[in-house]
Design brief:
Blueprint (H helix, E strand, L loop, with lengths): L1 H38 L3 E10 L3 H8 L2 H7 L10 E5 L8 E6 L3 E11 L3 E8 L5 E10 L2 E11 L4 H6 L3 H22 L16
Antiparallel strand pairs: 1-7, 2-3, 3-4, 4-5, 5-6, 6-7
Length: 205
Amino acid sequence: MRIGRMASWLNFAKTMNKARNLPLIGGGIAVAAVVLFLLLPAEAHIEREILIDAPRATVFGLVNDFRQVNKWSAWLQDDPNARLEFTGAARGIGAAMNWSGTIAGEGRQEITSSVPYDEVATALLKGSQRPARTAFLLTDADNGTRVRWTYDVSFGLNPLDRFLGLMLDDIVGAEFGEGLISLKAMAESLPRGDYSDLKVCLLYT
């Protein structure tokens, strides 16, 4: 009996020791999770660029108007039946595009900054995704135009968004790369004429 009781007490002591270690293990997992969260990026910056053998004015016209953008952009290739609605200004600041599709989902993009022949910036919202900012930056290069297409988004404190952000460069980068190749083909197919030295005046009626 004594031996049996002793064995029971030993087993009980081992169980209690394991139980005491559980908070330590749980605490270690929690610390590791916090460290991993802090290591995940809080924001993402993605960019792709290409050299186009066309004047900046030509390229600017193709990125400053959503109707023109949809002629070369690859983003709707997988959802050609998506419904598009253009609102606001025809081009430049205030021009906006709403879309709804089976694959593309729902979203809205609006031009927030437009500097003739230099830059076009937009605010982008896709479904439940976090708001993002995109921009086309145009500079002279080798008698042509260097186009840099950028994408910026902040993930806040959402750990899932931060984790998914690790894959964003591959996804968005591939789309931007295809789009720039199409933009290059379209711009270089247009008659060459450099009007970038002309002053642009906005007329209000």
